[in-house]
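Progress against Task 2.4 (sequence-to-structure conversion) is shown through the following example record, which the project officer requested during the mid-term review.
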Amino acid sequence: MRLEFASSILALFLLFNVTGCQKEEPPRVAEDSFQNAPEQVIENMEVIFTEQGRRTGVLRADSVTVYRQGQEKRGKRIRVDYYDRDGQHVSTLTAKEGTYNSDAEEVEARGNVVVVSEDSTHLQTDVLIWRKQINRIFTDSFVTITRGKNTVSGYGLDTDPRLEDFHILRNLQGRIEDVRRISE
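Structure tokens generated for the chain above:
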């Protein structure tokens, strides 16, 4: 009886030790899960754009996630200040979010995009792209531009940051009340 009791305890002891020592495999994570994860998160980021040592723009964002080895930065609540060749401020862009691609030197603004120039010209759209290399602003989306009492709208846009040399590409409509402000 004593031998059976000892054998039972030994069997229980071995059973607990063997099952207790088995390592549980951690849950597997698909390799693709990390490819789209950000590499960094930055608060209150500022990027200064220059051309031959002169400031052409300043990009600010409340928070930024960095992807693709730093090449792509996605920001929330962005602001871009544009400057002319003499360093004078010419306009300000604001948007809910945006992406900066450092390889292409391109900023894409999305969500309630507004550009206001120094002469109070207002541009409104949903998506806008600024290409630093040629210092031009583009969109295929619907745009509205207001200068004083004059308003034009349509689809697609090609303009300079001053909002002086703008071309609406299709379905142009407008309301002109002050003819003198058109040529300014």
